[in-house]
Amino acid sequence: MAAAAAAWRKLRAGLIPQVTEGRRWLLIDAKKEVLGRLASKLAIVLMGKDKPTYSPNKDEGDICVVINAKHITYTGGWKLKNKVYYWHTGYIGHLKQIKLNHMIERDPTLPLRKAVFRMMPRNRLHRRRMLKLRVFADERHPFDDKPLVPWTMPPRNIRKPRIYVPRSIKLARRKLAEREAAAAAAAAAAAESEGDGGTAKEGVDRPQ
Predict the structure, then answer these.
(1) pLDDT reported for residue 163
(2) How confident is the model at residue 193 (pLDDT cuts 50, 70, 90)?
(3) Rounded to the nearest 5°, which phi and psi values hold at 181?
(4) Residue 132 and residue 63 in contact, taking contact as beta carbons nearer than 8 Å
(5) Which CATH class is domain 8-151?
(6) Cα angle at 16 between 12 and 20, to 5 degrees?
(7) C or N terminus of the chain, fewer CB within 10 Å?
(8) CB count, 10 Å around CB of 189?
């Protein structure tokens, strides 16, 4: 029990009064959200760009508590097994790498934290802004005593897939349409000429 309580206190650590004073506590449910879209919106909220009082040299963003990080959606069927994260230890030949599926098995919150970390500018406010991001794998979090405000993502606009048509087929369709239009115009002209000839013939045969 003592170890669990210590771990629970560690999740709340780092939020100094200067960071939490005058900030909103936002509760974000990451279930079925796309990783990149969610990370970009979180970066905007952490920097305070969604407020009219935004200033690049001040830390005025809100505190984001993200839950259900293990249920995040990863678009593209190849990313889980083929997307690779690289880092270097500083020693010669010590280039490390890990695939996305292995990273999720190790820590489900790590992909989202890395995405948000890399979407914010590298300056002196970077660390203080990242302190306001708290990500949890499931619905349990230690901030029940805070005035959490639910925050929802804007609706996702899924475009219909564009069907590729070869240029040769496009040219063939264009020529066919031109031929059909020319044939229709010729048929209309022929019908009009036949009508004019019939009326003229009726005028000649009409008795005086």
Answers:
(1) 83
(2) confident
(3) -65, -40
(4) yes
(5) alpha beta
(6) 90
(7) C
(8) 10
For 130-153, what is the mean pLDDT? 90
- End-to-end CA distance of the chain, in Å? 122
Which two three-digit tokens encode residue 10? Answer: 């560690």
Q: What is the pLDDT of residues 52-102, one digit of tens each?
A: 989 999 888 999 999 999 999 988 878 888 899 999 999 999 999 999 999
Beta strands per DSSP E along the chain: 25-29, 63-67, 84-88, 95-99, 133-135, 148-151
- Is residue 16 classed as helix, strand or coil in its secondary structure? coil
Is 130 within 8 Å of 115 (Cβ atoms)? no
70 near 137, Cβ under 8 Å?
yes
From the list 118, 35, 39, the residue with the least C-alpha distance to 74 is 35
Distance of alpha carbon 196 from alpha carbon 194, whole angstroms: 5
Name the helix (H) or strand (E) containing 158: none
Identify residue 127 by its one-letter amino acid code: R
Using CA atoms, how far apart are residues 51 and 104, in angstroms rounded to an integer? 33
Q: Are 5 and 87 in contact (CB under 8 A)?
A: no
Q: Where are the beta strands (DSSP E) in 7-153?
A: 25-29, 63-67, 84-88, 95-99, 133-135, 148-151
Burial 165-188 (b: 16+ CB within 10 A, else e): eeeeeeeeeeeeeeeeeeeeeeee
Distance of CA 1 to the CA centre of its chain: 40
